[in-house]
Automatic annotation (TrEMBL):
PANTHER family: RIBONUCLEASE H, RNASE H TYPE-1 DOMAIN-CONTAINING PROTEIN. It comes from the Eukaryota. Gene3D superfamilies: Ribonuclease H-like superfamily/Ribonuclease H. One of its GO terms (molecular function) is RNA-DNA hybrid ribonuclease activity. InterPro entries: RNaseH-like_sf (IPR012337), RNaseH_domain (IPR002156), RNaseH_sf (IPR036397). Residues 21-150 form the RNase H type-1 domain. This is RNase H type-1 domain-containing protein.
Amino acid sequence: MPAQWELSDDLPEEDVLMIEVMPPWKMYFDGASHKEGAGAGVVFVRLEGEVLLYSFTLTQNCSNIVAEYQALILGLEIVVDVKQLSLKVYRDSQLVVNQLLDLYEVKKPELLPYHNYAKRLIGWLGHVELEHLSKKDKKQANALAKLASTLPMTDKETRIPICKSWVIPPIFSDNEDDTFQE
């Protein structure tokens, strides 16, 4: 601090507005597309370390890059809905990240609506950082996108519990009957 600056203990007799700056959520996203279907995966890591997983079966077949934009937009819509204004977004697709950072031009006209909507959503948030990362760092989002792209589409939401488990088969003696009895 420069020597000519003075600190004052005198505060005005008015209420002081305090703004608490919350650390950003982290968002990882991925899209997957193949001839059987398309899906999007989004992973949020909240302030307390809580992980929120989302997997979306996309209702139309599309290119991989459109699936990427779909995943990004679905994640951004969730963040806008919960009013989380600070976000770090991670993706291994240099194309999407660099298009959003205006380092690459969006050359395909069919991508412009997705690009423009994503930019608008980012604008609604207070602070968004976009960062490129390696493929190995976003395994969960990739797995969710692949899962959603392979599930048959239904009109209803499907909940798939993912549990940790390991089965240890019981050891039977030679005298025990191996058949189940009802």
